[in-house]
Design a protein that fits this description.
15% strand, alpha/beta, 304 residues, Nucleotidyltransferase, domain 5
Length: 304
């Protein structure tokens, strides 16, 4: 166990515990009368983040590892069935902690963001498609970046140029990226109000006169490459060097945080596992920012 990871874990636990002390209503609901959980909600958030950061996609293997190596941090660990249920019920808490950490960084107020979507595959066999509890939400879609079809969801992500997740959504694989972005901006109206004159960078899928007009009405300037048959856009030289950021963020999710190996089999399970990974990336950026590290999105000090 690296000292750097322990420092991050301690800081996250304290931050979450303070949040729950100030706003106890944010904790997952549980009956007033009953057995109090031995693993606190702050410990649960920390444990869930560590699982994603250390690359354990199997909860059974993770609990065995934690029981053998992390008893000094977590004196009590639940059995697998109990641990499997707790993050699902705490998904909203994971989201709120993620937003709290993002707000507590120097880049939260950046006025240039990047938007894109990436596949979250949920199954490959026909039997999985027919029997899965995810049917009705997941769909067949096409990933142009990798020239492949997949069955699953899409993670729509808006992040800063330094990779900090600002807002996100999970949708079916065929969901229109433009409509999803407008829905995100509508649901998170404060993000636009707090960033007057914001610039948003997207790929060729974020096109359309009505779509761009709606962004302009919200004070958002859109940068994107010209589509086939369109004249060159005046802001094209600014696009290419910045676009690699979102591809790099997606690669961090998939290559280091195992986004497509989430192993979720129900909607609540997939949501919790995706939230774990977004929390892990946000926590690393938050900690790197506060400790003045040169590369904010680096997970090297924490993922082993």
């Amino acid at each position: 166990m690296k000292t750097e990871l322990e420092t991050l874990v301690t800081a996250l636990y304290v931050k979450t515990d303070d949040l729950l002390k100030d706003s106890p209503h944010l904790a997952p609901w549980r009956p007033t009368v009953g057995i109090a959980p031995q693993l606190s909600d702050a410990e649960l958030v920390t444990l869930a983040m560590m699982q994603a950061m250390l690359g354990f996609t199997s909860e059974a293997r993770w609990l065995r590892h934690a029981g053998a190596h992390l008893r000094h941090l977590f004196p009590y660990l639940p059995k697998q069935p109990g641990y499997n249920k707790r993050p699902r019920k705490a998904a909203d808490l994971l989201r709120r902690v993620t937003r709290l950490l993002a707000n507590d960084t120097s880049m939260w107020s950046d006025d240039v963001c990047i938007v894109d979507s990436t596949p979250v595959e949920c199954g490959r066999s026909r039997e999985t498609v027919k029997r899965s509890d995810l049917a009705g939400w997941t769909e067949y879609g096409y990933c142009a970046s990798h020239s492949r079809f997949f069955w699953g969801l899409r993670l729509h992500l808006v992040c800063t140029l330094r990779g900090l997740p600002v807002t996100f959504a999970l949708t079916g694989a065929k969901a229109d990226e433009r409509e999803t972005l407008l829905d995100l901006l509508s649901a998170e109206s404060g993000l636009v109000a707090d960033r007057p004159g914001q610039t948003l960078i997207g790929d060729k899928n974020y096109f359309g006169r009505d779509f761009e007009h709606q962004l302009v009405e919200q004070g958002i300037r859109l940068l994107r490459p010209a589509r086939k048959g369109e004249p060159d856009r005046p802001d094209a030289p600014l696009f290419k060097p910045l676009w690699q950021v979102i591809e790099s963020v997606n690669e961090t999710f998939k290559g280091q945080l195992d986004l497509e190996q989430h192993r979720g089999r129900t909607p609540s399970g997939v949501i919790a596992r995706v939230m774990q990974r977004i929390l892990a990336l946000t926590a690393a950026i938050w900690h790197n920012d506060h400790t003045r590290q040169p590369i904010l999105r680096s997970l090297t000090a924490y993922d082993h």
